[in-house]
Amino acid sequence: QLQLVESGGGLVQPGGSLTLACAASGFTLDSYAVGWFRQAPGKEREGVGCITDSGASTNYADFVKRRFTISRDNAKNIIYMRMNSLYPEDTAVYYCAADQRGCHHSAFRGQRDRFRDLEVWGQGTLVTVSA
């Protein structure tokens, strides 16, 4: 069974940092692009960023550029997202999703009606930014 499990969420103060992890089981991630998504309370899910299968390239939504960094360790089968300078509006459930079709897939570029096309989704981890 293909599974992704997110971890690392929690409560952090505004301006703080957090690192999320996305671990795969049942398959190896080295042929998959992996994206991070988030869903804030009362809002639609949105794309945050994506990393290619090799890790050579990443892209990010404008609202997280220069604050969030996605990386991967294919040997450990884990994807990371380092989040710096967090704002209360970053509060959300964060999800990772994997797909072999690469970061150019429209879902990874933010097209919401294509999110369901992605091959594997995690269950999410809650990040709360609050004083």
Distance between the termini: 39 Å
Q: Please give the largest β-sheet.
A: 7 strands, mixed
Computed over alpha carbons, the radius of gyration is 13 Å
Helix content: under 10%
Low-confidence stretches: none
Structural class: mainly beta
Shape estimate: globular
Kindly estimate the percentage of residues that lie in beta strands according to DSSP: over 45%
Please give the number of β-strands: 11
Q: What is the string of SSEs from the N terminus onward?
A: EEEEEEEEEEE
Mean pLDDT: 96
**Quaternary organisation:** single chain
Number of helices: 0
Per-chain topology:
Layout: E1 3-7, E2 10-12, E3 18-25, E4 33-39, E5 46-51, E6 58-60, E7 68-73, E8 78-83, E9 92-99, E10 120-121, E11 125-129
Parallel strand pairs: 2-11
Antiparallel strand pairs: 1-3, 3-8, 4-5, 4-9, 5-6, 7-8, 9-10, 9-11
How would you describe this structure to a colleague?
The protein has 131 residues and is an all-beta fold. It contains no helices and eleven strands. The chain has strands at 3-7, 10-12, 18-25, 33-39, 46-51, 58-60, 68-73, 78-83, 92-99, 120-121, 125-129. 32% of the residues are buried. The model has no long low-confidence stretch (mean pLDDT 96).
Which characteristics define this entry?
single chain, 131 residues, mainly beta, 7-stranded mixed beta sheet, 4-stranded antiparallel beta sheet, 0% helix, 45% strand, globular
